Each structure stands twice: as structure tokens, then as C-alpha cells.
Amino acid sequence: MKGGFEVVHATLDMIQPHHEPIWDFASVGFPTTSTVSSIPRQTAVENRCINLERNELSEWVEQVTKQLIDDLPGETGADHTSLQAAETSMVYEDNFAPSLLGDFRPRKTVRRSFSDGSCGEELQWGNELENQTNNVFENGGNDRGLSRLDEQGLSLITLLLECAVAISVDNLGEAHRMLLELTQMASPYALSCAERVVAYFAKAMSSRVINSWLGICSPLTNYKSVHCAFQAFNNVSPFIKFAHFTSNQAILEAFHGRDRVHIIDLDIMQGLQWPALFHILATRIEGPPHVRMTGMGSSMELLVETGKQLSNFAKRLGMSFEFHPIAKKFGEINITMVQIRRGETLAIHWLQHSLYDATGPDWKILKLFEQLDPRVITLVEQDLSHGGSFLDRFVGSLHYYSTMFDSLGAYLPADDPSRHRLEHCLLYREINNILAIGGPARSGEEKFKHWRSELARNCFLQVPMSSNSMAQAQLILNMFPPAHGYSLVQGDGTLRLGWKDTSLFTASAWTSHASR
């Protein structure tokens, strides 16, 4: 914990204080005001990298999942429609390539076919893929670099895709047979990113098949272990720092001139984000505010420890501070538990993840947002849909996590123990929760595809991320060599951080009508 606070404290100067009351909405500006035009739109910052070549694994996954969608039979029209919607939701207009919409065909055939038993119809991919695969390996590859991904890796991913289709039509016997094959062929310790991805996806899909046979299974979570891995991820990747510092900047701007402030963190974990903000608040020209923080989490023991660390840090800064732990999911609490006080300026922070269900039903969360009437909601979303059918979630998560594995592989060698720990404790846990645990059929709750859209439809207004937030994000990217391939885009009032051409996290800020 202490080490994590020191890491954050080392970059305190990155948060920029504001000397203007920018939360006067005449000056902040919403999409209809003149000041929005001063915010750079359609501006891409490529981490000083120009024309970086996309990694062959994530690109091939993008192509082959598009073929999977195109070749689904007509009887699955509902799923086909939802998958097309999932495609559209992953398209970004700000210089990120459209996800799952490659302009050429996949490079590997699927020779296996199977039926769902009830209708007797086969799901089979076209022979065109086989010819194209042969061309790739006979000609030594193409100018997009796909030849560097070995044929074994392509075969493994192809079999994984077949297995996903079998699960989607409840052909669990065939899926189980293919999974046995995959688990024997793919290792999470392999040199190839493709093989590592397949190993973890096969493990998650095996859990899905077993759960379907035996009933719903919710695994026990060692939250302390997960939080430690989360901190380790923060040390080797810009994604968590991006979420922390862009959100802190938006909260700082919302608190300008306010002497009593309240922050609700929907999943505070170790509280690594907040010392940086505390430091800036404590050194304001007008003096520090009284800060009250409500930390949500699943373990009261961990929440109390986090509260002690934050209280000690605030005390050293000479800042008045209160911490209120709530060991419940935000979507399951009564509004009276939050203890709203008159005269306080309220900020809600939500860094979304898929490590476990940290917040509860989405519709209840939205209702609480409306009741709490916050000055600002800082939202950092994974660019990944948690809703829809199994095949929806499989297609989206395969592309998303292939990119995440690629980004780690560009920075850490294959035999690095910390890389394996991150892949096993974080990425695999998220994959398993999305494929084996999540979904409306299991949770009984439909997840929103995109929270930004839901907030806009429910009486919330977007506050464009400021130029200072953009500066925070760019400074974070400057900490990583250009060859690592991280990319930053500002547009539509949001900031997006990705790897190569794929957006992975989007930061945005929102306020309620009543707070204007």
C-alpha cells in the first residue's frame, strides 16, 4: 500500500490546478456552447509513433471474427443482429480502426462442422478461407505482417472460434471435445501471444461448459490478491494511471471554489488514485476543503485498511478528512447509507473493470446516480460490451484481450514472472467472468452496452474533458517508449487510450441537470 502511494505521489505535479471557475457552465460549455470548439476534436496523439504496424494476432482475430459473423446461418438472425450491433459499438471515428470490420478475409479455414442437435443444420465456414491460408504460407505472408504469426497459433484460434459457435448453439458435447483438444495444445507460458490467449480462453470456456451442465457457479474471490495484481498492472502499463489522472483532473475542476466536498468511489480497492488529488487540494490558493470520502468494496477489512492509509496521508497534508467504508455493491445499497450532507459538492468516480461484479445491477446504479444528483461523475469504461448473448461477448472479448495480451507482450518478455501473474490474476479473471459467469442467463440482469449512452439518455449532461486532462494523459504516455505502441485520442468530449489501432479505455465526465 505504502509503495503504491509513493508511486502516485511521484507524479503529483501532473495534475493542473485551475484558477478559473470552469464549472460555471457558461465557460465549461456543453456540445451546444461556443467553448467546445476550443477543445481539440479529432486530434490523435500517437505517443510519438507514426504509422505503427498493427500486431498480427489482434489483427487476425479482428478479421476472423468478422468472418464468423458473416457465416452464421439465417436461423440465428437475432444473434446475428446483436453481433452486428456489437461491431458498430466498437467502431471509433477518431483514427482508431473499426473493430471487427477488416477489409480483407481471414487467413485460416475452419474444416470442422457441427450441429445443434435440434434443427440438424450445420454451422460451417467457407472453403475460401483455406485457399487464402495456403496463399499466405506459400507466398511467405503479406505486407501486413501476418506471416509472423505461426500456423499453429492460427489453428488454435480457429478451433477456439469453432468451439464458441458450438457453445452458442448448446452443442456442449462437441464443445467439450474441442476444449479437451485445446487445453492439451495451448499453454499460458508459451512464447506465442496467440497460444497464451487460447489457453486462457479455453479455460474460461471449459468453466462455461461445466457450469451449463452442473448449474451456475460463482467462484470465490481473493480480493487482496486481485488488488495487489491490479497495483502491479498499474506499475507496468499506462491504462490505470490514465484512468486515475484524467478523472482526478475532472474532479479537481468540479471542486473549484468549494469548501466541503464528498467523493464516492464505487470500488476503491487500495485507494491508489487519491493521494495525488489530496495533495493538489491541500495546496489550493483558497485553502484546502474538508474532504469526505465514501469507499465502496467487497471486504470491510480491506476498506478499513485503505481508509487508515488515506487518513494518515491527509493528516500529513494538514487536510480535514473523513472516510466512510461501505462493504456492499453500490447497486445494492439504500441511498441513506451514503449520508449526503447539505452544502457538500458530490463527485462519483467509477473505474470499470471485469475482475468481479463490483457494483450490482446497472439499472439500480443509474437510479442511484439520479437520486444522488452529483456535481460530476467521472467514468472510465473498458471499450468492451458486457451485455448480449454468449457469442456477442466472446467476439468482443477475444478481440479486446488479444490486444491486451499483445500490449503486455510488447513490453515484457514471455518468461517474465510479472507478465504471467498479470495475465493469470487479472486478464484471465476478466475473461472468465465475461464468458463463464456473466450474461443475463446466468446473472439474471441485462448489462448496459455503453454507460455513456445510458447517462446521456437519462438526464445527465457530458462535461468535455479539458485540455489539462489531455495533458495529463499525454504526460503518462510519455513515460513509455514510443515503440510500445500506446495511442491517445481526444474527441466527442472524451479521451481514449488504446494500443496501436484499438481503443481499450475511454474516460468521460458527466453532470446532472440539477447541478448546473
Helix content: 40-55%
Report on the biggest sheet.
Answer: 10 strands, mixed
Poorly predicted sequence stretches spanning 5 or more consecutive residues: 1-54, 74-148
Please state roughly what percent of the residues sit in beta strands, choosing from under 5%, 5-15%, 15-25%, 25-35%, 35-45% or over 45%.
5-15%
Alpha plus pi helix count: 18
Instruction: Tell me the number of strands.
Output: 12
Computed structural class: alpha/beta
Distance from first to last alpha carbon: 37 Å
How confident is the prediction overall: mean pLDDT?
Answer: 76
CA gyration radius, whole angstroms: 23 Å
Spatial shape: globular
Order of helices and strands: HHEHHEEHHHHHHEHEHEEHEHHHHEHEEE
Overview of this protein structure:
46% of the residues lie in helices and 13% in strands. It has 18 helices and twelve strands. The chain has helices at residues 2-9, 25-28, 56-70, 77-89, 128-138, 151-168, 172-185, 193-214, 223-236, 239-254, 274-282, 300-316, 362-372, 390-409, 417-437, 440-443, 451-457, 467-477, and strands at residues 43-45, 114-115, 122-123, 260-265, 290-296, 321-326, 345-351, 376-382, 460-463, 486-491, 494-499, 502-512. The longest helix is centred in the middle third of the chain and has 22 residues, at 193-214. It starts with a helix and ends with a strand. Residues 1-54 and 74-148 have low confidence and may be disordered.
